[in-house]
């Protein structure tokens, strides 16, 4: 077998970045990204894209830190280059504030972001309901711009892009040698994984260009994330809720909570409501699996279940997934041991 | 009591407002008029990037430190009001970059969260080896002047587009007290060899992905003669020109190139930014602000003049502290003239 034919299922941030990493790491392969949804209709398009990672209970911390660091370094280089605007990546400074002192004052990612420190008493005066805070500079990576930028890179290295709804991974056999599963919530069906569930998030995207800092309540429920062309106000975390239609009452509450943190937002205009279903799982599923059906074999590399940390962890997990794909390609190219006579 | 304020930049308008706020209710009558040959958007204030930041070196007049502090605190007290952005006001954080280690500035405890830059932050700016990070404020000149004008208009203050040729002219027109806020052109009313133009040129661009200010310092070339990138409420101001003694109000192509190349080198993401406009202004440079009373005699009457000019490149930064000081001096004038309403006496 000369050219390994690789199908990447899913065209959110995970599918596209994994495809790019594979094209760089694995020589002599053809890559096809297959998805029913492409930007701007993926979950990654709704996310604000702030690099403030969540904690996955079932993934070792050192792994999460490595994934986050790989992603941060990759995006920081873009943010400081002439490509920043085309890629939708920018640096933002701001504050994460807590209404009661957190158990962990210094999170695992404190030395990955820039200039992390505790807020001073004077800084906290701006937030009278909050008793503790962290100040740092991090990155924002905006799906609607980043995904097309990634897609260009996939095609630039010879990759193909196909719009199609995959109902069963076996559909891809024997046209493809290896399947990379980046289907997020789709894995409930495609991988029979009931551990993954939607965590519904509703956000508002508004015009408020005077807001230059991010503000995030430590609970993660209320946040203000200024971006290139709008400010994202959030949010909600509704477990098991599949409803993609915005709820007007929730929008009012989000606006109210955010105005409490940043009163100047009362002047925000051109408010757009968006809903995304975070592909939540106790831990990211990032591993190889060999599907077997009779005499048919289909190597699969899973890379899904990033919950609210998709953008924050994408490049690190994509690199690791690409390494796993490389192992699969090696295994396919190694001649099978001759049977003993 | 008739007050004539000459000048309608940030100094003139804020001083007018400060006086009116403090004395309107304690005087039998207070008429304030503002005379200027330039109103927004044609004042020096309109050209400024609008970042609150004094010079890095200590001022020769220690009072200026207090005036800077008072201004920051006053502006900060408006953060948290829903109207802050209407005033032209918003918090902003950013970087000051140097080629070698320097002492901390006198304003390090005035701004918020002042700290030195970490090595990874410095990696982002390969031409620089040392720096600071802090949170400060943007006070955008044009929006602020509009807001001040609205507040003054509500209070019945009148504005006159007029080139004042002499203090005498204003005194004979009936003014009891003249507040001289003529900025870089103060020399036309009274020669002042200490006052010079510090010509600046700026390019305003559309670069909404920039959220932090970046100010570089070249200690040999002097303040503001090194590239700086300062996001405003909507546009981003690129600058880095400071030419003492240059009265040329036209945009200069060499200065344009110098700003553009310097800022693109500092912030490569600017290469595709759309240019919105380019402006030239004259910072009213003086070894220290002239803030003092002077009595002038025209005919048989004394006219009080309170000078408030020469704020260099830190007018927006120091304006409110100076306005408060002028109001204090004005109060003394009123006392001397027995004009303040006395509390009712016991009988």
Automatic annotation (TrEMBL), chain A:
Its cofactor is FAD. Pfam families: DAO. It is found in: Cytoplasm, Cytosol; Peroxisome matrix. Residues 5-324 form the FAD dependent oxidoreductase domain. One of its GO terms (molecular function) is D-aspartate oxidase activity. One of its GO terms (biological process) is nervous system process. PANTHER family: D-AMINO ACID OXIDASE, D-ASPARTATE OXIDASE. Selectively catalyzes the oxidative deamination of acidic amino acids. Suppresses the level of D-aspartate in the brain, an amino acid that can act as an agonist for glutamate receptors. Protects the organism from the toxicity of D-amino acids. May also function in the intestine. SUPFAM superfamilies: FAD-linked reductases, C-terminal domain (SSF54373), Nucleotide-binding domain (SSF51971). It is an enzyme of class 1 (oxidoreductase). This is D-aspartate oxidase. Belongs to the DAMOX/DASOX family. It catalyses: D-aspartate + O2 + H2O = oxaloacetate + H2O2 + NH4(+); D-glutamate + O2 + H2O = 2-oxoglutarate + H2O2 + NH4(+). It comes from Catagonus wagneri (Chacoan peccary). D-dopa binds at residues 223, 278. FAD binds at residues 43-44, 166. Its EC number is 1.4.3.1. Keywords: Cytoplasm, FAD, Flavoprotein, Oxidoreductase, Peroxisome. InterPro entries: D-amino_acid_oxidase_CS, DAO, FAD-dep_OxRdtase. GO terms for cellular component: cytosol; peroxisomal matrix.
Automatic annotation (TrEMBL), chain B:
D-serine binds at residues 283, 313. One of its GO terms (cellular component) is extracellular space. Its EC number is 1.4.3.3. GO terms for molecular function: D-amino-acid dehydrogenase activity; D-amino-acid oxidase activity; FAD binding; identical protein binding. D-dopa binds at residues 53, 217. Keywords: Cell projection, Cytoplasm, FAD, Flavoprotein, Oxidoreductase, Peroxisome, Phosphoprotein, S-nitrosylation, Secreted, Synapse. The keyword Cytoplasm applies. It is found in: Cytoplasm, Cytosol; Peroxisome matrix; Presynaptic active zone; Secreted. It catalyses: D-tryptophan + O2 + H2O = indole-3-pyruvate + H2O2 + NH4(+); D-alanine + O2 + H2O = pyruvate + H2O2 + NH4(+); D-serine + O2 + H2O = 3-hydroxypyruvate + H2O2 + NH4(+); D-leucine + O2 + H2O = 4-methyl-2-oxopentanoate + H2O2 + NH4(+). It comes from the Eukaryota. Residues 2-329 form the FAD dependent oxidoreductase domain. Its cofactor is FAD. FAD binds at residues 37-38, 44-45, 49-51, 164, 182, 312-317. Its main location: cytoplasm. The keyword Oxidoreductase applies. GO terms for biological process: D-alanine catabolic process; D-serine catabolic process; digestion; dopamine biosynthetic process; L-leucine metabolic process; L-proline catabolic process; neutrophil-mediated killing of gram-negative bacterium. PANTHER family: D-AMINO ACID OXIDASE (PTHR11530), D-AMINO-ACID OXIDASE (PTHR11530:SF15). Belongs to the DAMOX/DASOX family. This is D-amino-acid oxidase. It comes from Catagonus wagneri (Chacoan peccary).
């Amino acid at each position: 077998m000369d050219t390994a034919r690789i199908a990447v299922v899913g065209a959110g941030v995970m599918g596209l970045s994994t495809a790019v990493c594979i094209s760089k790491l694995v020589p002599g392969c053809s890559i096809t990204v297959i998805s029913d949804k492409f930007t701007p209709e993926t979950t990654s398009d709704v996310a604000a894209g702030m690099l403030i990672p969540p904690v996955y209970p079932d993934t070792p911390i050192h792994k999460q830190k490595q994934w986050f660091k790989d992603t941060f370094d990759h995006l920081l280089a873009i943010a400081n280059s002439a490509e920043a605007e085309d890629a939708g990546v920018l640096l933002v400074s701001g504050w994460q504030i807590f209404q009661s002192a957190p158990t962990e004052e210094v999170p695992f990612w404190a030395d990955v972001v820039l200039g992390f420190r505790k807020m001073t008493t004077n800084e906290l005066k701006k937030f009278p309901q909050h008793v503790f805070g962290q100040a740092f500079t991090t990155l924002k990576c905006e799906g609607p711009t980043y995904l097309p930028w990634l897609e260009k890179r996939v095609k630039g290295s010879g990759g193909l892009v196909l719009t199609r709804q995959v109902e069963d991974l076996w559909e891809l056999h024997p046209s493809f040698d290896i399947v990379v599963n980046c289907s997020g919530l789709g894995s409930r069906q495609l991988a029979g994984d009931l551990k993954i569930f939607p965590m519904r998030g509703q956000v508002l995207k508004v015009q408020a260009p005077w807001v230059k800092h991010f503000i995030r309540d430590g609970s993660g429920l209320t946040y203000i994330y200024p971006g290139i062309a709008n400010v994202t106000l959030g949010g909600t975390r509704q477990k098991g809720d599949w409803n993609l239609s915005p709820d007007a009452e929730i929008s009012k509450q989000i606006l109210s909570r955010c105005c409490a943190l940043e009163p100047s937002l009362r002047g925000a205009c051109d408010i757009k409501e968006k809903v995304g279903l975070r592909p939540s799982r106790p831990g990211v599923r990032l591993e190889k699996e060999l599907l077997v059906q009779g005499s048919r074999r289909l190597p699969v590399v899973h890379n899904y279940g990033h919950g609210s940390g998709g953008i924050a962890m994408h490049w690190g997990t994509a690199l690791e997934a690409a390494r796993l794909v490389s192992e699969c390609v090696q295994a396919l190219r190694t001649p099978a041991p001759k049977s003993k006579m | 009591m008739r007050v004539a304020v000459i000048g309608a930049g940030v100094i003139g308008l804020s001083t007018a407002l400060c006086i009116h706020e403090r004395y309107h209710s304690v005087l039998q009558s207070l008429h304030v008029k503002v005379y200027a040959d330039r109103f927004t958007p044609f004042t020096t204030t309109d050209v400024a990037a609008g970042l609150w930041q004094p010079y890095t070196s200590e001022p020769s007049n220690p009072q200026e430190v207090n005036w800077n502090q008072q201004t920051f605190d006053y502006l900060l007290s408006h953060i948290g009001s829903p109207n802050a952005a209407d005033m032209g006001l918003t918090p902003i954080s950013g970087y000051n970059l140097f080629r070698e280690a320097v002492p901390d500035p006198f304003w390090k405890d005035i701004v918020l969260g002042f700290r030195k830059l970490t090595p990874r932050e410095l990696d982002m700016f390969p031409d620089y080896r040392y720096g600071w990070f802090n949170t400060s404020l943007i006070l955008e000149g044009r929006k602020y002047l509009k807001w001040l004008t609205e507040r003054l208009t509500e209070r019945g203050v009148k504005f006159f587009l007029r080139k004042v040729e002499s203090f005498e002219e204003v005194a004979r027109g009936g003014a009891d007290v003249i507040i001289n806020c003529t900025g870089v052109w103060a020399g036309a009313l009274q020669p002042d060899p200490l006052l010079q133009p510090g010509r600046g040129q700026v390019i305003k661009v559309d670069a909404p992905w920039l959220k932090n200010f970046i100010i570089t310092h070249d200690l040999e070339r002097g303040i503001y003669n090194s590239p700086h990138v300062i996001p405003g409420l909507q546009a981003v101001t690129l600058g880095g020109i400071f030419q003492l003694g240059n009265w040329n109000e036209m945009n200069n192509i060499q200065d344009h190139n110098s700003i553009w190349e310097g800022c693109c080198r500092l912030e490569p993401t600017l290469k595709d930014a759309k240019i919105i406009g380019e402006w030239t202004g004259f910072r009213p440079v003086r070894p220290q602000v002239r803030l003092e009373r002077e009595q002038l005699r025209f005919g048989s009457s004394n006219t009080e003049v309170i000078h408030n000019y020469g704020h260099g490149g830190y007018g927006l930064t120091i304006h409110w502290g100076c306005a408060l000081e002028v109001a204090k001096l004005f109060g003394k004038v009123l006392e001397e003239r027995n004009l303040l309403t006395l509390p009712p006496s016991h009988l």
